[in-house]
């Protein structure tokens, strides 16, 4: 399968997901009632979530700086924040495209190895983000078990445990790569080198570069700080969901609180894992559907809430990320072709 065919297939799947989920989200909902719900919202509360959203992304850049500290002593936070925002903006158009562009921009700015920086993204996702997400999900499952049984009767603790096992296995593989270089070298020797010395040398260089990016794992003194920063990121992520309750008066009419916001955030996170640009459509379907089942809300109010909470994040990342995209393009830090071996 050619690269062009793969890109076409990926885009086609994304379009189908977006169109299908948007249709499903609004199916059976009175659009005039949706407009009324959107007009009734208190937009001062919605606007108040904007700096919170920006702060959450700044925290992600701040944690990234901590992760890079063992190899890059004086990484500029402004460069890291720029790369984070450009990455999110690209994800809004090209699913997961920002995960590649984000380390590439920063590596070009700092004139360092792309593979080394990319390693920190892998570490971020599998060692910090996914475990924290699963812990939040486990907490929600334990403390809101009855609510989950109503909204998702077929979901069980064993399914959540299965996800945890998969993440643990992926994390274990990463740690083996970092902590046991001889084992990694033995695997490369007996699987790749037997067939091609050239490919082996490329993989060997790539693994060594990745190992450099994983240096934070060998720095236990930073563990507590990284845990606090990770928890802070996810806590701040939830705040806009909670603040938006006040835009619709749900804290009074339905008695919704921070725990409910956490539950909806976990549900909405699934939309950003699947290959839909910016979670468009999927977020609306998942969050609005959960609110209708769990809180017995009418579809118009639930979809209005999902639309505004998602819309704020989408607009902030698109506008701020787009601004930084222009700056990076002027600075010639954006790629015109994939990174070659020299950048690895």
Q: What does the model show?
A:
The chain is mainly alpha-helical and 344 residues long. The protein has one domain (16-330). It has helices at residues 3-26, 31-40, 43-68, 77-91, 97-110, 114-143, 145-151, 157-179, 181-193, 197-213, 223-248, 250-253, 258-273, 282-295, 299-330. α3 (43-68) crosses α15 (299-330). It is globular and about 65 Å long.
| Range of helix content | over 70%
How many domain regions?
1
Distance between the termini: 25 Å
Structural class: mainly alpha
Please count the beta strands (DSSP E, at least 2 residues each).
0
Q: Assign an overall shape.
A: globular
Which sheet architecture does the biggest sheet show? Answer: none
Number of helices: 15
Layout of helices and strands:
Blueprint lengths: L2 H24 L4 H10 L2 H26 L8 H15 L5 H14 L3 H30 L1 H7 L5 H23 L1 H13 L3 H17 L9 H26 L1 H4 L4 H16 L8 H14 L3 H32 L14
Which descriptors would you attach to this protein?
344 residues, mainly alpha, 15 helices, globular
What's this entry about, in short?
The chain has 344 residues and is an all-alpha fold.
């Amino acid at each position: 399968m050619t690269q062009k065919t793969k890109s076409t297939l990926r885009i086609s799947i994304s379009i189908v997901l977006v169109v299908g989920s948007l249709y499903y989200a609004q199916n059976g909902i009175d659009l005039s009632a949706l407009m009324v719900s959107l007009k009734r919202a208190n937009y001062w509360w919605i606007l108040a979530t904007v700096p919170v959203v920006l702060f959450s992304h700044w925290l992600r850049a701040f944690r990234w700086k901590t992760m890079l500290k063992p190899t890059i002593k004086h990484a500029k936070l402004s460069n890291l924040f720029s790369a984070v925002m450009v990455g999110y903006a690209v994800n809004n158009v090209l699913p997961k495209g920002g995960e590649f562009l984000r380390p590439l921009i920063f590596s070009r700015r700092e004139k360092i190895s792309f593979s080394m920086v990319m390693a920190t993204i892998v570490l971020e996702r599998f060692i910090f983000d996914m475990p924290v997400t699963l812990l939040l999900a486990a907490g929600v499952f334990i403390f809101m078990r009855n609510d989950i049984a109503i909204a998702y009767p077929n979901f069980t603790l064993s399914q959540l445990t299965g996800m945890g096992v998969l993440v643990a296995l992926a994390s274990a593989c990463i740690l083996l790569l970092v902590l046991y270089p001889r084992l990694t070298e033995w695997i490369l020797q007996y699987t790749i080198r037997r067939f091609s010395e050239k490919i082996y040398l490329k993989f060997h260089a790539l693994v060594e570069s990745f190992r450099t990016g994983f240096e934070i794992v060998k720095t236990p003194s930073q563990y507590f700080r990284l845990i606090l920063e990770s928890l802070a990121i996810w806590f701040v992520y939830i705040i806009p969901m909670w603040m938006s309750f006040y835009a619709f008066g749900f804290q009074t009419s339905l008695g919704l609180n921070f725990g409910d916001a956490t539950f909806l955030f976990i549900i909405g996170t699934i939309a950003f894992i699947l290959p839909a640009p910016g979670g468009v459509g999927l977020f609306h379907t998942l969050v609005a559907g959960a609110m209708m089942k769990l809180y017995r809300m009418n579809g118009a109010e639930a979809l209005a809430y999902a639309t505004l909470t998602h819309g704020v994040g989408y607009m902030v990342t698109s506008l701020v990320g787009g601004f930084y995209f222009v700056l990076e393009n002027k600075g010639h830090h954006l790629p015109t072709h994939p990174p070659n071996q020299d950048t690895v």
